[in-house]
Write a structure and sequence with these properties.
eight-stranded mixed beta sheet; 28% helix; pyridoxal phosphate binding; pyridoxal phosphate; binds pyridoxal-5'-phosphate; 10 helices; PLP-binding_barrel; TIM Barrel; 2 domains; alanine racemase activity; alpha/beta; single chain; 352 residues
Length: 352
Amino acid sequence: MNTPYLEIDLAKVFSNTQKLVKMFGDRNIDITGITKVALGEPKIANCLIAAGITSIGDSRISNIKRMHQAGVKAAFTLIRTPSMTEIYDVVKYADVSFNSELSIIAELSDAAIKQNKIRDIVLMVEMGDLREGILEQDLNQAIEKVIPLKGVNLIGLATNLACFSGVKPSKAKMDQLSRLAEECEKEFSIKFRIVSGGNSANFNWLFENTDLGRINNVRLGESIFIGRETLSRKHIKGLYLNAITLVAGVIESKVKPSLPDGEVGQDSFGNTTTFVDKGNIVRTILAIGKQDVHISGLTPLSDVDIIGSSSDHLILDTTRSPLHTGEQVRFSLDYAALLSCMTSPFVGNSYI
Ligand SMILES: *Cc1c(COP(=O)(O)O)cnc(C)c1O
C-alpha cells in the first residue's frame, strides 16, 4: 500500500456502532449513522448497517447518491438543509431531508410531485447554536405553510447544538425541544415520528437523565469513528479510539540541530515560529503535510514528537526512538484530521 494511507478497521467501526446502538437503544433512542466524514463510502455505510443502524445521514447529497447507487440499503437523510440547485437529486435519492427554509421546501414539494413521490421532511429548530434552524417563535407559522404542500410530509423536528457555537445540549434545551414538538402536534393535530435531539455531543444528556422526553433520535458520526463524545472529547467506555489510523512514510531521517541557522522571518504559511535549543536531535521527515491533513489533530502512536509541518512535509523529533527512511509512522486522528485525510486525493484507504 502506498503511503500515506488511512487504515480503516471495519471490525472496530462495527463494534463501536453496535455498542452505541445498544447504549442508545436501551433508552429508546434510534441512531442515524452519519457518514459525511467517510464521504459516504459504501463499505463503511454497510458496516454501520450490519451493526444495527437502519438510517444513514449525510450532509452531502452526492454522498447519498453514491451510497444509493452502490446499493446500500438504508433510509437516507440529508442532514444539511438542501440548496436550490440540488432539489431534484434530494427528491430522487434522499428519503428524508432536514429543512429550515420555506422556499426550498416548496421547491422540494414541486419536484416530488413531478417525480410522483412524497418526500419526508424534518424541520430544523434553532435553539442557540446559531447555525441552521427556524427560530422557535416562527415554527408554528412555518408548519402552517408546510402542511398544505402536497409533495412533502412533515415527520418531525430536529435541532443541532454544539457544532458552530459549542452550545451544550443540556436537559433544558432537550426538554424545550420536546415541549415544542408537543405544542406543534397539538396545534396542528399531527403526530411527529421523529424528534432528533442532536449529535455526538448528546452523550452526557443521555446518561445523566432518565426522562428523555420526546427525543427518539440522535445523529452520530464522530463517536462511531473516533470513539469519543464531543462536548469534552471524553472517551466513551468500551469504544475503540483507533478504529481509523493514519500511516505515513519516512523520506528523510538525520541528526540535525534543533535551532535554525540564519536570520529568521516568516515561514511558508506566514507564521513566525520560535524553536527551543535542544542541541542536536534526530529529525525525521514524513511525506505528508498540511495539504493532506489537519496536522494539529494527529497524535503519534509511537514515542516521537511532532515539531511542525509545511504543505508536503511533517517533521518529527525521533531522538528517543530513531526512524529510518522507508519506515512508517502511525497516528491516531481527531475528527478534523480524519475529515481532511478522507478528502485528500493523496491519502489512500486500506480496509482491514
Ligand atoms: C455532522 C452532523 C452530525 C453528526 O455530528 P457528530 O458530532 O459527528 O456526531 C449531526 N447532525 C448534523 C446536522 C450534522 O451536520
